[in-house]
Specification:
18-stranded parallel beta sheet; eight-stranded parallel beta sheet; 38 strands; about 725 residues; single chain; alpha/beta
Length: about 725
């Protein structure tokens, strides 16, 4: 008997028999009552759970915090205060210790932290009864490992006294100074990525599937207790060659980076043996070294010797890998972590809500998966993305009318789309197709249910252009036209809108590589110009947007639109070229000029001038807009607010230069890509409508996290000491 019939089961059998004879109206009534009883029981259980910080509802954490007198800590979206409230009493019992300070700082801000008492790094005369052998007045220039850590959070050298105050951000090595190092970058782990070979048969590879250098990051390990001091292996920092090399020289049971959860894995399979299995390289056969080429990548050194002393050489600081010179040409899979500031662009983070939003509560009528390993399954699993797209075109043509399909890319491999012959995704009226990075799990019987997906842990690479065509008749309700959704992809090419009648394009949590592609509309006849197209870009990194038709709309939220990257096309004029399109943009960064018909913007950074055709409609709020821009009315924007009523041209130029945003990097795929430098004027760093920073990283709410961090330091720092924040990344 189902759980909905618990009340019905309590009735005497005679009443159930009579109810059955009369069509079971009593059974239906008690089933409805059981639903309400289940809600009541769930609420009672949750009320009990709300007594504990570990299990309470998120809204209840503030009330539990009041019980232990938590003050000065604000709730930040994307970061729960649950650990701070749960650890408050334990931290207060250890108040004044560096372990309590770094634990409270981590819980309050969400950033991994490490507290350093700088008086322990001062050159002092030591008492003979308390000799600190590790505190040497003279640095050892023979210890390269120790010198590399100098001036960082894990240094061991000693320094002369610095009388400046650490709160100013300038003084460190003072008797009263305690520094809290914080790591704002996150490490995102990828498994079994297809490494990119620099040239066929060269035996030289990059970890990044696009074939570019990038630093590899540590996969942070969890600390076992609140009293454990944070070490380098516990934070999401860039991997160092010397640290990994020293780790491999240790006994296997003592290894930190190559222990139970290795930071790097490499698998090889000889080319030409598609049925052969990948063989994982033992850490003892890995050489950590420098792989620098004087000129081209073909000059990276290869492992010499026959037999070679190692199976693979890795440079973690550049993300490079080389094989022995005598090694047959191989396919290489790598598992590693990369650093980035947030869940922006594609990535292996959880995107379940985004995929469900793309489905729009529709039932999935057709679903296939794409994977490289495991072989094809007829009508269900394909080994290439073009085959899956061709299958969709056939299925969509055979099922005109309302039809929803999903193509799930189920691994982190590279999928090429050939330029010739052109493969176009065709979407008819009332049809919706999702191309997403997601696993398609099997149930206990080995069956896959349509509409099932697991949207995390994956970041596949699509090498080539994605062409889409709306095959509608060009008339009728715009809401009845076809929809294409891309979610979680790394696209090394363009998304091209072919002439037709597409209804909507949604790109979420994707990276359309700057310089390699963007979103572009192919011009066609007036009768096939996608006249009512709605383009939505969300949490994505995109090289540029070029929409030429009238009647379309463009919505951008939490995105970086880039024209200035080192990979960007030198022929690009605008990062957003849509002179006949209405643009609504929030919490985004435009690294280039923009041209639109109408503009409605909030919390956005326009790094270069923006031109708007219609000035009577729309508004720009809490944004940075260069003074030469032509926009509708602006409200509390910079540098307008700083200039005020000033009329001196020279002073206006100085104010604009002072308030202009500084970026830590505009080169993709550097870890600091698109982030505001902390030296940027505070009118931009705190200029959003909620006091956070303007731009694509507004959702991090950096000023609020920093305020929480300062409040935690004020409470848990030792009496008579001064604490300051030092951002390591």
């Amino acid at each position: 008997m189902s759980s909905r019939e618990r009340l019905y089961a309590l009735l005497p059998a005679v009443y159930r028999v009579r109810d059955h004879q009369q069509g079971e109206p009593l059974r239906a009534l008690l089933a409805a009552m059981q639903d309400e009883l289940d809600l009541l029981e769930e609420n009672i259980h949750q009320l009990y759970d709300d007594w504990f910080a570990e299990t309470c509802s998120e809204w209840a954490t503030a009330y539990l915090g009041d019980l232990v007198d938590v003050r000065g800590i604000q709730r930040v979206d994307g970061h729960t205060l649950r650990p701070y409230v749960a650890n408050t009493i334990a931290a207060r019992r250890r108040k004044g210790t560096s372990t309590a300070l770094e634990q409270a700082s981590r819980d309050a801000s969400g950033w991994p932290s490490h507290a350093v008492e700088f008086f322990q790094h001062l050159v002092t005369t030591q008492h003979m009864r308390h000799v600190r052998s590790a505190s040497q007045a003279t640095a050892s220039f023979r210890n390269a490992e120790q010198l590399q850590l100098n001036h960082g959070p894990f240094e061991q050298e000693t320094h002369t006294v610095d009388i400046r105050r650490i709160e100013t951000g300038r003084g460190r090595y003072n008797i009263r100074s305690i520094g809290v190092f914080s790591w704002r970058l996150r490490a995102y782990h990828l498994r079994d990525v297809g490494a990119a070979e620099t040239a066929p048969g060269s035996n030289r590879f990059t970890f990044n599937p696009m074939g570019v250098d990038m630093p590899l990051y540590n996969r942070p390990q969890t600390e076992t207790s609140i009293t454990q001091v944070t070490q380098e292996q516990h934070v999401p920092g860039a991997l160092r060659r010397r640290a990994l090399h020293a780790d491999l020289q240790m006994n296997e049971e003592d290894r930190v980076y190559f222990g139970t959860t290795p930071v790097l894995r490499v698998k090889l399979r000889e080319i030409g043996s598609p049925d052969g299995e990948y063989v994982e390289i033992d850490p003892d056969r890995i050489l950590i070294c420098t792989l620098d080429g004087v000129g081209s990548p073909d000059e990276w050194p290869l492992i010499q010797g026959s037999p070679p002393p190692y199976d693979v050489a890795i440079d973690p600081e550049q993300g490079r890998l080389s094989l022995p010179a005598t090694q047959p040409a191989s396919e290489v899979l790598v598992s590693y972590s990369y650093g980035f500031a947030s869940e922006l662009g594609g990535g292996p983070y959880d995107r379940t809500d985004s995929v469900e939003e793309g489905l729009a509560d529709l039932d999935v009528d057709w679903q296939v998966g794409v994977r490289t390993e495991g072989g094809a399954v007829s009508g269900e699993i394909y080994t290439s993305l073009p085959e899956a797209i061709a299958a969709w075109n056939t299925e969509a043509a055979a099922n005109p009318g309302a039809f929803t399909g999903v193509i799930a890319i189920m691994d982190n491999r590279t999928y090429s789309i050939p330029e010739s012959p052109e493969l176009i995704v065709q979407i008819g009226p009332h049809q919706r197709l999702l191309i997403v990075a997601a696993d398609w799990p099997q149930d206990s019987d080995g069956e896959r249910e349509e509409g099932g997906f697991v949207a995390h842990g994956l970041f596949p690479h699509v090498d080539g252009d994605i062409l889409v065509e709306g095959t509608g008749a060009g008339s009728g309700d715009p809401g009845d036209r076809g929809v294409l959704v891309l979610d979680g992809l790394l696209v090394d090419g363009e998304v091209v809108l072919m002439p037709g009648d597409l209804g909507a394009l949604r790109i979420a949590h994707c990276t359309i590589v700057p310089g390699q592609g963007g979103v572009r509309m192919e011009s066609g006849s007036p009768s096939a110009d996608n006249g009512s197209l709605s383009v939505t870009l969300h949490r994505s990194i995109i090289a540029g947007v070029n929409l030429e038709n009238s009647g379309s709309s463009l919505t951008i939220t939490d995105c970086i639109i880039d024209q200035t990257s080192s990979l960007a096309s030198p022929n690009a004029t605008y990062c957003v070229s849509a002179p006949s399109v209405d643009l609504s943009i929030d919490d985004s960064t435009l690294l280039g000029a923009a041209s639109v018909r109408s503009l409605d913007a909030s919390n956005t950074i326009f790094a270069q001038p923006v031109t708007t055709e219609r000035l009577q409609t729309g508004c720009v709020r809490y944004s940075y807009v260069p003074l030469l821009s032509r926009t509708p009315r602006r409200y509390r924007c910079q540098p307008d607010l700083s200039v005020g009523d000033e009329t001196s041209a020279a002073l206006i130029r100085r104010i604009e230069n002072r308030t202009s945003p500084w970026f830590m990097s505009t080169d993709y795929p550097t870890p600091d890509y698109g982030r505001l430098d902390l030296r940027t004027d505070s009118v931009v760093l705190t200029g959003a409508d909620d006091g956070a920073e303007m731009g694509a990283y507004h959702h991090i709410l950096h000023p609020l996290r920093e305020s929480n961090l300062e409040s935690a330091m004020d409470e848990f720092v030792r009496f008579g000491m001064s604490a300051g924040t030092i951002f390591e990344t």
